[in-house]
From TrEMBL:
<dbReference type="Pfam" id="PF14398">
    <property type="entry name" value="ATPgrasp_YheCD"/>
</dbReference>
<dbReference type="GO" id="GO:0046872">
    <property type="term" value="F:metal ion binding"/>
</dbReference>
<feature type="domain" description="ATP-grasp">
    <location>
        <begin position="122"/>
        <end position="344"/>
    </location>
</feature>
<keyword id="KW-0067">ATP-binding</keyword>
<dbReference type="InterPro" id="IPR026838">
    <property type="entry name" value="YheC/D"/>
</dbReference>
<dbReference type="InterPro" id="IPR011761">
    <property type="entry name" value="ATP-grasp"/>
</dbReference>
<dbReference type="GO" id="GO:0005524">
    <property type="term" value="F:ATP binding"/>
</dbReference>
<keyword id="KW-0547">Nucleotide-binding</keyword>
<protein>
    <submittedName>
        <fullName>YheC/D-like protein</fullName>
    </submittedName>
</protein>
Amino acid sequence: MKSNSTPLIGILTASKSDGTIAGNGPLFIEIQKKLISLNGISFVFIPEEVETNYINGYSYSPEENCWKKGSFPLPDLVYNRIPFRSSEKDEKSQWLFAYLQEKKIPFFNPCFIDKYKLFQLLKKDSILRDYLPETILVQEQYELLDFLKKFGGIYLKPTQSSKGKGIVRLRLNGPSEIQLKGINKQDSYPSFTHFWEKWAEELFKKQYLAQEEILSAEYEGKRFDFRILAHGNQDDYTLTGVGIRLSQEQEITTHIPTGGRLLPYHLFQSNEHDEFFQTIVSNIGKSLSSQFGYFGEFTIDAGLSKTGRYYIYEVNSKPMSFDETDIEERKIENLCRLFLQLIDESS
C-alpha cells in the first residue's frame, strides 16, 4: 500500500441518457462505509470526467448522508460497475481502460461476458466442461432444427444480455409443431419453417445461442437454481454465498425480478453441493482472469437436473445485489478486503 496515504478506490459507472449517474447507489454507499472503517475511501465516477491527472467524481459522506462532488487524484484501484454493455464498449470507456493499464492501476472487473465466448472458454477446462449444457451459436436454420430434434427442448438466449432478458424456450410438439415460451410470451408454430420466418431476424440481430433444455430438479413442484457469489482471494477464489432461486409464475427463469422466489440454502445444503461450488468457483475464476483480465467477483447460475447431474448455466461479471442480507454483507466485506489486498500487491 502507498505509504502515508489512505487507499483510494474509484468506482466506475456510467451516465444515463438523461445525464444522471447510473449504477447501484446502495452498493456504493455500503462500500464507502466499510472502506472508511478500514481507513480507506471511495468515490464514484464516469469515464467522461477523467482528466490526465485527476478525476471529477462523487464521494458519499455517512455523517451528512449525502453525495459530495469533488476532484480526486488517480485512484489506487478501479472497480468497474458500468451497468450498460453499450457504455462499456464506447470510445471513452475503452480509452480509460487503456489509460489505467498504462498507469498500472489495478482494475476489475474488465468486462461484461458474452455467453457464447464464456461457453467456449469453460469448455477448455477439463473439469468444467462436464458441467456445461450442450450449446451452439444460432447460425443456420437446419443446424438449429437438428439441435432441437436432438434434445426435444432447447433454450434460446441472446449472447449479450442479463437478468433473463430475451430468453425463450422451444419445444418440439409431435412431428412438426413448435411451442415457444418466454417470460411474457407464448406461441406455437405449425412447423419449424414458420418459426424461423418469424424469428430469424431477431436471432441474428441480437446474436443468439441455443442450449439444450435441462429438466431441473424440483422443490415443491417448482424448478430451482443455485445463485453462487464468488470473490478473488490471494491467487484463488472464495465462495461468498449461495442463494436458491425457485421459479413461480413462469418456469423460463428463476430470477427474482421475473417472479422467482428466494429460499435459504440451508434447506438444500449437502457436502456434495458444497464440493461442487468450491470446485467450479476456483476453476471459473481462474479461467475468466486468464482470458479477459482480472475478475475480482462474479456470480454463477447453476442447477441440478432431475437425474442428479450438476450444470453451469451462466456466469455474470456485474452481480446484482443479493436479497439475502447475510450474503450481501459478506460481499461488501470480501470486496473491500480484496480492494486493499490488490492495492497492497501493486505497490
